[in-house]
Specification:
alpha+beta; five-stranded antiparallel β-sheet; five-stranded mixed β-sheet; 12 helices; 52% helix
């Protein structure tokens, strides 16, 4: 019979998440968010950068000066104390030498009493009786005959280092700074020693002067310097913030005004205060905005007049065109009875009138788009029959120029909420354009669908497009080769109208092409009217396209530009990559 591990077994503990690890992750996440927020503030705020740099630079400079000043004050106080104690040591050594000069042997009975009196005198000679100065006379060479005497009484041996004793023994006046406890708390002492020559040899005189007063003075000086430095840094920061604000505020106002101008509020202006450089900037900005407003209004008026002129001319030409059409139809119907040259002229007249009528129709449609009067009549539509109708209508042209049309359509209906008339017109323009430039090679029409969008691609294998032409093809009256004879008698407005139809649906119409590899157009429409497109069910770059650099066709996005084999689109990724050469929404 198997048994489960106890609640606190090692395996259970290993599986249980560590509380410390969770706390660490929470703290690290919070720190990362704070750092990211600070980095964002640093990048976006000029004032923050200027104030921060000013504070850091001023802190370093003031800190360096404060350190130098505090060190100088401490050095001056210590040098003053050394000079004073040195004079007292030299004077005390001279007095002591006179007092013990009468003794020839260290064993004489009166010598110890003389040393005691001398120490007491030298200690009593201190002008500040409570200063804590300790005077000591030692004789290390005669330790058995002469005892160490101090006034006031204290054990000075720990504060007199061997190095200092050796220097005094060599006949030098020397000093050290030592910390120890003599008469109370642990105190820093300046220990000064001097040899005292006698008839029987040499003894040592030591002054142990506390540096408490100097330390307090130096500490007060350092505190004063630090407080002054902090106050100076804060004042410099406030000054930098004030000055930066005076400069940044007009820049921010100019940025907000520029944003309003770019949003179409052409009457926005900056307030001009004073006559300084910032006021000159505001005045120049206002003058620029006024000139831009005047120019934009003039261009809008010209564009409105041009659109109205096009619309009026198109409507006015309808009546004479109808009359000419009636006469031309009559002549065309009787052409068999005319001379062959006249009959051929009747045929040419009929063809050109058809093209003229199509041109007028396209101009009227363009004028409706320009005026914003184009309306979308969306309804659930099966796109498979739409594609078949377009192919059937262009089958005669395709057979005449020797371009077979191939279809790759789903076996089930593809339903989308679209305007069937406009979609059919777009496909008719795309397929007609592909047939015209197909160079007797097959044209492939592919229909794809996913949950949010439908797409139709029209692929030809003709001469293709040169670099940059994938965007120019949608311009009005643009032709890749002006000397090329049209097979369909087009007006030059088909792709422009198709692009507007795609935009009216909220969709995309895009182009790809490469010299010698043909071209492909992709129409992507939302499956439900009003939805926003994010991806396309079909890829823009064909699977059989030769990509530059030998890269994989199913990899990530790859920018293809001049000098890279001539491909003209940005979309070698799989369907749904969202990269477009021409955005129609």
């Amino acid at each position: 019979m198997s048994t489960s591990p106890p609640p606190h077994s090692p395996s259970t503990a290993a599986r249980r998440p560590s509380a410390g690890g969770e706390v660490w992750r929470a703290v690290s996440g919070r720190v990362a968010r704070v750092v990211a927020r600070m980095h964002q503030t640093w990048r976006r705020s000029l004032q923050v950068r200027v104030v921060t740099i000013t504070l850091v630079a001023s802190s370093l400079l003031v800190g360096g000066f404060a350190f130098l000043i505090a060190d100088k004050i401490t050095t001056i106080l210590l040098d003053s104390a050394r000079s004073d104690v040195r004079q007292r040591v030299i004077s005390g050594a001279s007095y002591t030498a006179k007092q013990v000069s009468l003794y020839g042997q260290p064993q004489e009975a009166q010598l110890q009493e003389t040393i005691d009196g001398t120490v007491n005198y030298l200690a009593g000679g201190d002008p500040q009786q409570t200063s804590g100065v300790v005077v000591a006379i030692t004789a290390d060479g005669y330790a058995h005959d002469i005892q160490t005497r101090t006034a006031p009484s204290a054990n000075v041996q720990p504060l007199i280092s061997p190095e200092l004793r050796a220097a005094i023994a060599d006949g030098k006046v020397a000093s050290q700074i030592r910390t120890g406890r003599l008469t109370g708390d642990s105190t820093k002492y300046l220990v000064y020693g001097s040899p005292v020559p006698t008839q029987f040899g040499q003894i040592e005189l030591y002054y142990l002067v506390p540096l408490t007063r100097q330390d307090v003075t130096a500490g007060d000086a350092r505190a004063t310097v630090v407080a002054t430095g902090v106050a100076l840094v804060i004042l410099l920061g406030l000054l930098a913030a004030l000055v930066t604000r005076l400069v940044v505020n007009p820049v921010r106002v100019a940025a907000r005004t520029a944003q309003r101008l770019s949003a179409g509020l052409l009457d926005q202006r900056m307030v001009v205060n004073g006559e300084d450089d910032l006021a000159l900037l505001a005045a120049s900005f206002n003058q620029m905005a006024t000139n831009l407003q005047r120019q934009i209004l003039r261009l809008e008026e010209m564009s409105r007049l041009q659109r109205r002129f096009t619309s009026d001319v198109s409507h006015e030409l309808r009546t004479p065109l109808t009359t000419v059409r009636m006469a031309a139809d009559l002549i065309f119907a009787e052409r068999d009875e005319f001379d062959p040259a006249v009959a051929r002229s009747a045929e040419l007249l009929q063809a050109e009138l058809d093209r003229f009528e199509e041109l007028l129709t396209d101009l009227l449609e363009i004028s409706r788009f320009d005026a914003g009067f184009a309306m979308l009549d969306s309804e659930p539509t099966d796109l498979v029959p739409v594609v078949h109708r377009v192919v059937d209508r262009l089958a005669g042209l395709a057979e005449r120029v020797g371009v077979p049309i191939e279809l790759d359509l789903p076996g089930t209906p593809v339903i989308a909420e679209v305007d069937p008339r406009r979609v059919e017109r777009v496909l008719r323009n795309l397929v007609g354009n592909a047939v015209e430039h197909g160079e007797a090679r097959p044209v492939l029409i592919t229909l794809g669908v996913d949950e949010t969008a439908v797409a139709i691609t029209v692929r030809d294998r003709g001469v293709g497009l040169k670099v940059g032409e994938e965007k120019l093809v949608f311009n009005r009256f643009w032709r890749a080769d002006p000397s090329r004879a049209r097979q369909t008698g087009g007006t030059g407005l088909g792709l422009s109208i198709s692009l507007e139809d795609a935009r009216l649906h909220g969709g995309w119409l895009e182009a790809w092409g490469a010299p010698g590899q043909g071209a492909q157009f992709r129409l992507t429409l939302p499956a439900r009217a009003g939805d926003r497109l994010t991806t396309s069910p079909l890829r823009l770059v064909p699977a059989d396209a030769a990509l530059p650099f030998g890269g994989p066709r199913d990899g990530g996005p790859l920018a293809i530009g001049p000098g890279s084999g001539g491909a003209l689109a940005i979309d070698p990724a799989p369907a749904g990559d969202g990269h477009r050469a021409e955005v129609g929404s």
